[in-house]
Design a protein that fits this description.
Layout (H helix, E strand, L loop, with lengths): L1 E5 L6 H15 L5 E4 L9 H4 L14 H6 L8 E3 L7 H4 L6 E4 L2 E3 L3 E6 L2 E6 L22 H4 L5 H8 L7 E4 L12 H7 L4 H5 L6 H10 L3 E4 L6 E6 L5 E6 L10 E5 L10 E3 L1 H9 L28 H11 L32 H10 L4 H8 L21 H4 L41 E2 L4 E2 L58
Parallel strand pairs: 1-2, 2-3, 3-5, 7-8, 8-9, 9-11
Antiparallel strand pairs: 1-12, 4-5, 6-7, 6-13, 10-11, 14-15
Helix pairs in contact: 6-9, 10-11
Amino acid sequence: MKIAVEGCAHGELEKIYECIETLQHRENIKIDLLICCGDFQSVRNYQDLRAMAVPEKYLNMCTFHKYYSGEKRAPILTIFIGGNHEASNYLQELPYGGWVAPNIYYLGRAGVVMFGNLRIGGLSGIFKGHDYLQGLWECPPYSQSSLRSVYHVRSIDVFRLSQLQEKVHVMLSHDWPRGITNFGDVEHLLRRKQFLREDIESNQLGSVPAETLLHTLKPDYWFAAHLHCQFAALVKHEDDTETKFLALDKCLPKRRHLQILDIPEKYDGDKILKLDVEWLTVLKNTNHLLSVKNMDCHMPGPGGNERYDFTPTVEEKSQILNLLQDLTIKEGSFVRTAPIYDSKAPKCAPNNPIMNPQTVNLCEKLGIDDPLQVVMARSGRALTEPSSNDNNVTSTSELVTSTMSLADHTPMKSKLLLPPPSTPNECDSEDSLKKSKCSTESTFISIDNMESTNDCSTPTSEGTKKTFKRRNLSIYNTPDVEDSISDTSSGLVDAESPRSSKLPFRTNIL
């Protein structure tokens, strides 16, 4: 099995797929799956564009809308997690994951799926300490504060992932686990990104909850993006297991943003995307912990008078199998819930949240709550059903199994299990981040034999330089050392640190 892993996609699906096609032809290989590590930008129309927390001049439609509308079809099964540059209103429709377009699957706020015999987990968003303990209180229309806090990692998602006991083979996050630089060639990283030194030396670079999950789940591979540079590390755990970590760059020329991963044949299986029983059981068992309050909500732990270990038992997993019968994630369940892109449409922000049939179905089957529906119920509002009168939106009558209750075939509506509490106040926090323009270039690296080929030839326009007011945002525009050297002098060498020979990836330095 061969998997392509992309760093920050920034909506440039056409270019990413073109790179994969070029690599397949040049290397005479077939790639079975594409994984994207955030900043996917599943923007369907202008309303989605206005749900992204980026400055006005960086609000670009890019190319995802072509795959959503059906103008194009993703040539390879694509799985992604969310980052900090996302159409948050669309992703909020699918808190537990779902198809955002034919052959393109979102893992949800946190999620685990099976592809063949390969188990893939992911954590969407970025970590901000001031929002980490809060409930999932945000919903459209967003304020300037909630437009940013909506993509911040929350403790309930990390708590749920921490309950897993079965082996996770591949783990995805957008930002890096904190402390990961201790296991790689940090000096080479600092030669390219000097401004990271202070955060690295004070151990403030990266995500604290991702660090916890890294040492709890101990996956075989961990992929990330966000800091817009390539960085490899090898983490050795106390039980002698290892995690091969690789951060990938953004989708721009002369950037190492695409990785080809060779997976042993034993993981091939049927190469069909399926739901994960253990993860679904954890979702069901922890539904009562869901909060949509704009306040800190602590997860249970030792010393309390309630259950805090939700690792599923054999009996609990059997109950889930009886409820779902078939775990296959059928592409036919995809439903267009919003109008397709129209260049003449008004450029307005999203207002009423949409009820997605995929979420309704899963919630009905498992007996869990859709957090967005709970938020709306608190304020006396209801989710809007997909319109059947708009020619650009899939009619709710076209997919009966997606739009009708499984029990009695009543109109689509999830029954709330949690009582709607009082109306929340908005958070005053604000995290201003910027989006870079996207182009593309790729690197082919085999993890197992640690060999590399030359880069795929792609356009090399760098776009407009940007000025950032906050120090930590310079990661998005600082040129790499490699990028300032002529392509004609390219060669393959190892990273300069003595520990580079122990890393799972070989660095291709221009």
